[in-house]
Design brief:
- With about 300 residues, the chain is an alpha+beta fold.
- It has one domain (about 5-300): 2,3-Dihydroxybiphenyl 1,2-Dioxygenase, domain 1, CATH 3.10.180.
- It is built from five helices and 16 strands.
- The chain starts with a strand and ends in an 11-residue tail after the last helix.
- Bound molecules: zinc ion (ZN).
- The site of zinc ion (ZN) has 5 residues, from strand 1 and strand 13.
Length: about 300
Amino acid sequence: MLQGIHHVTAITGDSAANVRFYAGVLGLRLVKTTVNHDEPGAYHLYFGDEGGRPRTLITFFEVPGAAPGQPGGGMFHSVAWRVADQQALDFWEQRLAAHDTVVDREDGRLAFADPEGLSHVLIARGTRDDDSPAQADGVPPEHALREIIGVEAMSLAPERSRAALVQGLGMADLGESLVVGSGDHVGRVGLHPEPMSRGAQGAGTIHHVAFVSPDADHKKWRERLTGGHLAPTQVVDRIYFKSVYAREPGGLLVEVATVGPGMAVDEDPEVMGIALALPPWLEPHRTSIEARLTPIHNPRTHG
Ligand code: ZN
């Protein structure tokens, strides 16, 4: 069984503003500053909990100056996060409003969008002993964003998506939503029941969603995707995890990613995220890559 949502990857047109919001306002840790392996002239930024663990990661491909996208068919949208309780929602209601972010509070949840329009919802769902919230100025750890627990899916063909996600990825079908994982490692994929017209990928939209595979099961998941007629890619080494990708018949791009080796594989966990991390094959090009990247300000750099 897959074990929840490994990460959500979205697109930003403005990395500096993206870091200001996700690290500076939301208090996530910028756990990895690297480049898009397929477009090494642009950032791939990873935000997460203190350890940068799977199930807490939201990552952004930078497409400098990208026009705003339009969520629609074939795309995931809206990221649901677990926070502790109503007091945490009170805290975020005030903090987001103080940072010019419009919030919508209703029983047990708080919805808002990032500066580029990507939707989020915080849900009061308790704490767990192994939570390791990011340390951030202005965000008490008891109120921190703790884990990604859900995404919404808009499909070009919802019933075909349902079948693919159930057969290919082993999700449980609860009707309005699909559940991936169980127990402490569970995520929910809300499936909009009507077919949606195609969205436009751009700033503030989600590129893909990855689900957690135990390392030992990863090859089997690729076989299962193949058996589910999902035409997966080969296994790709993303340095911090291994991945296979597949676009299901409703247009959604899904990924199955391993837990290991993790975000600390190439940096000291104390300082990871501050320096630009490059995979070995791009290291010889570091100088020219760094020259092309816009400077960003990681709050960790200055304590
Ligand atoms: Zn991914």
